[in-house]
Amino acid sequence: MNWAAISFDWNQVRAFLATVEEGSLSAAARALRLTQPTLGRQVSALEDSLGVVLFERIGRSLVLTPSGLDLLDHVRDMGEAANRISLAASGRSQVIEGVVRITASDAMSAYFLPSVLLQLRKVAPGIVIEVVASNAIRDLRRREADIAIRHVRPDQPDLIARLVAETTGHLYAAPSYLGRVGRPVDMADMARLDFIGFEEGDDLLNGLNAMGLNLTRRNFPIVADNGVVAWEMTKQGLGVGVMTREIAELTPEVEVVLPDIAPIPVPVWLTTHRELHSSRRIRLVYDLLAQALG
User: Fold this and answer.
1) What are the helix and strand counts (H, E) for the chain?
2) What is the pLDDT of residue 180?
3) Which residues, other chains included, contact 182 with Cβ-Cβ below 8 Å and sequence gap of 6+?
4) 61/149 same-domain check
5) Are both 14 and 99 inside the same structural domain?
6) Which CATH number fits the domain that encloses residue 121?
7) Is the pTM of this model over 0.85?
8) Are 169 and 44 within one domain?
9) Which CATH number belongs to the domain containing residue 62 in this structure?
10) pLDDT in tens, 174-195
11) In the beta sheet, which residues pair with residue 195?
């Protein structure tokens, strides 16, 4: 190894990679919990150390130069190696304290996790839980979270996935809404109702039609990008919403619409990284979640 040839440090490389992946200096600074001037100085220091210009400013945007593009794959390899080091070290930590990041859908984060975290606080008060409430699939391999609660099975070989529950989703509406529009009596009657969407695209529309409904986009006058918001709109009588049985049972403000409709199967997968599964604090939270979900 020619140590004298390595004239930069990891913080500078990390600042460069974060700027590329986050899209701007300000977003990268937020992701790394730095001030924007500090991050900008690190990127400039990397350029000085390497003797190349990595970014050029076009208007208000930063664009990679050819030199920056040439280095990007190598820098990403360094980032992956740094993640693997962090994973390996975290997996061997036997101290039951520290941060554990859990990612789950916004609805599950709001309605399910609080009771589990209340138990965890009693068992392990030294553990700090960071909840990433998101309907997007987070990348556990890059430490965007330590544990994920998902409704699809991950296919990455370095992840441990456990099917902890199989619940069902149903159609619900507020009695006030059904009182205004009239309760449907059959599947054909559902086509005259308004539905609350909670995701982009036609996945929900196609899924409901696969159940035998005959809906179009016009049946979705309101679409929210947040499941909790969509459920609140359902509770307040804006239309028909979809929710899992357990959460709906906590909500006396709604009732099942056409109970004879076949339920929507909803598997619940608990996932973590193979390296992290040997960490006592990760394992403790993982097992507690598995017990509560099961």
Assistant:
1) 11, 11
2) 94
3) none
4) no
5) no
6) 3.40.190.290
7) no
8) no
9) 1.10.10.10
10) 999 999 999 999 999 999 999 9
11) 240
Same domain for 68 and 179, yes or no, is no
The number of domains in the chain is 2
Report how far residue 75's alpha carbon sits from residue 226's, in angstroms, rounded to the nearest whole number.
34
- Render 38-105 in DSSP notation, one character per residue: HHHHHHHHHHHHHTS--EEEETTEEEE-HHHHHHHHHHHHHHHHHHHHHHHHHHT---S-EEEEEEE-
Give me the phi and psi of 219, to 5 degrees please: -80, -5
Query: Burial of 22 by CB count in 10 Å (0-12 exposed, 13-18 middle, 19+ buried)?
Result: middle
Q: Is 60 exceeded by the pLDDT of residue 117?
A: yes
The answer to whether the CB of 237 falls within 8 A of the CB of 177 is yes
Amino acid occupying residue 180: R
Mean pLDDT of the chain: 85
User: Cα(first)–Cα(last) distance of the chain, in Å?
Assistant: 51
Give the single-character DSSP code of 142.
G
Q: Do 243 and 99 lie in a common domain?
A: yes
pLDDT digits (tens, 9 = 90+) for 209-235: 888 888 999 999 999 988 899 999 999
User: Cβ–Cβ contacts within 10 Å for residue 174, how many?
Assistant: 21
Q: What is the pLDDT of residues 126-177, one digit of tens each?
A: 899 999 888 776 566 566 788 988 888 877 777 788 898 899 999 999 999 9
User: What 3-state class would DSSP assign to 293?
Assistant: helix
| Domain identity same for 260 and 153 | yes
Last residue within a domain, chosen from 91, 115, 133: 91
List the domain range (segments joined by +) for residue 112. Answer: 95-294
Question: CA angle, corner 8, sides to 6 and 12, nearest 5?
Answer: 150
Domain's final residue, options 31, 63, 91:
91
Amino acid at 19: T
